[in-house]
Amino acid sequence: MTMQTSAPRSVETDALTRLDNMPWTRFHTLMLVALGVGWALDSFETNIIGSVFGVLKTQWHLSSQQGSLAVSIWVFGMLVGAIGFGYLADRYGRKKLFLATLLWYAFFSVATVFSWNYESFLFFRAMTALAVGGEYSAVTATMGEFIPRRHRGRTDSLILSGFPVGALISAAISYLVLNHLPGAISWRVGFGFGTTMALLFFWIRRVIPESPRWLLQQGRVAEAEAIVESIAASAAHSKLTQQERAQAAQRYPKTALVPVHPTFWRNLRDLFGAYRMRCGLASALNFSQAAVVYGVLSLMALVILPYMKVSAADMPIYYVYGNAAALAGGLTAAVLVEAWGRRASLFVSYSFTTLAIVVIYAMHTLPGMVIGYCLIQFGVTWAYISGYVVSSEILPTRIRATGLGISVAVGRLGAVIAPLMLTNVYAASGTPSAALIGLLLLALPGPIAAAAWWMMGRETRNVSLEEGSADDGFSTVAEGVPRIA
């Protein structure tokens, strides 16, 4: 006698449409701050090593190759963390992972402060990098799953703008500690600042509930609806009576869904099967922006500023200029992903970044190169924010964090390749111009992919995540509303 397994039971709820059409609440402001700070801390850790490595090099008598190893280990740790924690966020929930990664970060950042030699420093940095990679996946997947659709692009952009804020803080802290504290403790104080911020904002982040979209994907409908109701209670219209609220809720169409429990191999099969074009788009965009970010940073630190006779102690001030331009790029993205739409913002931003590399190539004075550097930072921040917004909207809930993790991992390959390739090109040629041509070539996958999405991709401005991702096991069943395949 054979047993037949029944198909998963479909359930219906209006939780998704309520989330998408909800007014802005205090909860959404809390989300913006709590997740944006995570990006700021990630950026702080990523950028501070470039500012303080000169002190570490003197203290532990390190070679340039050992400095490159520290960067490579950091990037490799982020790569592993992005894929591993990304899948875990799809499997076990967003909240568990964005809390776990923040605590992991805080623990190993504290350990870094107490590093007793170069080897222990490398180990603790690698462990910290795992958490930072996980933050990229978990936070980026979470950010859009709560936000009303008409605010989603702007809010996601502001959260992602935490990265240039963290870079600004890193440059400012580095400049202060390097110029006012003894070298043996200055770098420890710098890393300790990030730990302090992580512990402070863990308290804020812990009040963020689990993603209702993830809960619905697991079939936990009652929990998801209770969270949506609690968010709605903080809205201005929450003063309505229970009967009036029930009448208002009837305006929202219900969504039918079949719960799906992700597994790692199923996620990979979907990402390299039905969603291979979207995963490829996200990966190409991430490779391009990471190659530019890490490439131009290495060129400034190792090629351009030394070529222009700028001292190591004065270098952080130039990073402040660049990071201020990056913040302006983030704010520009927050406006234009909504005003122009996702596809236009994506294409123009990646094209602008490529042209900015041409500008710095044409400059031959320190002020001109700094202006070119600021234009690149402005453009690449606008670009990667547009890219993350698009990537998070075109991948379905069940594989969103895994797919974003894979794209981040591919981006880290660009982050590894760019510094090594560009410094070697400079060593062979003796001038920054040849290295800048190499940076231009590494940047090209971004505008090419953005152009392809402009022509063939779906515009996801002001639509639900389910509609934007096209196939999430969801289908709208209200009368007069199109079914989502």
Describe the structure.
- The chain is mainly alpha-helical and 485 residues long.
- It has a single domain, classed as Up-down Bundle (Growth Hormone, Chain: A).
- The chain is 77% helix and 2% strand.
- It has 20 helices and three strands.
- The protein has helices at residues 15-21, 26-60, 64-92, 94-113, 118-146, 149-160, 162-180, 183-205, 212-217, 221-232, 242-249, 264-271, 276-307, 315-339, 342-362, 366-394, 400-429, 432-443, 445-456, 465-469; strands spanning 11-13, 255-257, 474-476.
- It has a three-stranded antiparallel β-sheet.
- Mean pLDDT is 83; it is low at 1-7 and 472-485.
**Which spans have pLDDT < 50 for at least 5 consecutive residues?**
1-7, 472-485
Tally the beta strands: 3
The rounded Rg comes to: 23 Å
Q: Strand percentage, roughly? A: under 5%
Q: For the terminal residues, how far apart are their CA atoms?
A: 36 Å
